[in-house]
Amino acid sequence: MSTPRFAVDRIHRIAVIGAGTMGHGIAHVAALAGHDVRLYDVTAEAAAAGRAKVVANLGKGVELGKLAADARDAALARLTATGELAVACAEVDLVIEAVPEKLDLKQRLFREVDALAPAGALLASNTSSLSLAQIAAAVGDGARVVGMHFFNPVHLMKLVEVVRHGGSDPSAVATAVDLA
Q1: pLDDT by residue (tens digit) across 40-90?
Q2: What pTM did the predictor assign?
Q3: Euclidean distance between the first and final Cα of the chain, in Å?
Q4: Which of 56, 62, 122, 128 has the most CB atoms at less than 10 Å from its CB?
Q5: Calpha distance 105→40 (Å, rounded)
Q6: Angle at the Cα of 139 from the Cα atoms of 1 and 124, rounded to 5 degrees
Q7: With bands split at pLDDT 50, 70 and 90, how would you rate the model's confidence at 1?
């Protein structure tokens, strides 16, 4: 039996690309789940603003008694914000894209991520309406691309739609399901 190319126990460092409504929520749940997370946006200020929203949401969880203060602090220690895509993608195991629903933007971003992230990193799009196959076509190895469509607000909705395209590696899909 061959070893699967992707596995959930190999996902430790995650880059979340886009610190807006969906991105900061994805970063929130990933950090709370124990992953080291790099939250990227086009400027350091936008990335920091996304991290500040995570700080506020985790604080609200503590205030409401739904989250222990030490769990909040640990999650925040695992979450960094950056305005540099190369820094976000360096040595990660998974990249989750959460940018506006524009195919050309996503394709351009995936081409950049393909060049910056390790060749073995799983690449996921949070798209809810665009063709995953067209997004995957922008990278050299489309088999490592899957869809992970989170529902909003991410930190409250325990629902992720995992999407495959015709060329998705089955272990990539299984890893996304296990991670979700």
Answers
A1: 999 999 999 999 999 999 999 999 999 999 999 999 999 999 999 999 999
A2: 0.97
A3: 25
A4: 122
A5: 15
A6: 70
A7: low
SS3 sequence, 126-164?
CCCCCCHHHHHCCCCCHHHEEEEEECCCCCCCCCEEEEC
Asked if residues 138 and 124 have their Cβ atoms less than 8 Å apart, the reply is no
Active site (annotated) includes residue 149: yes
CB atoms within 10 A of CB 84: 13
CA 118 to chain centre: 15
Residue 135 tokens read as: 């997004």
Task: Find the catalytic residue in 28, 149, 155, 165.
Answer: 149
Give me 85's structure tokens: 């895509």
Which residues are CB-neighbours of 119 under 8 A, at least 6 positions away?
A: 141
Buried/exposed code over 96-106 (b: 16+ C-beta within 10 A; e: otherwise) = bbbbeeeeeeb
Would you say 117 and 15 are in contact if contact means Cβ atoms under 8 Å apart? yes
* H or E element that contains 94: strand 94-97
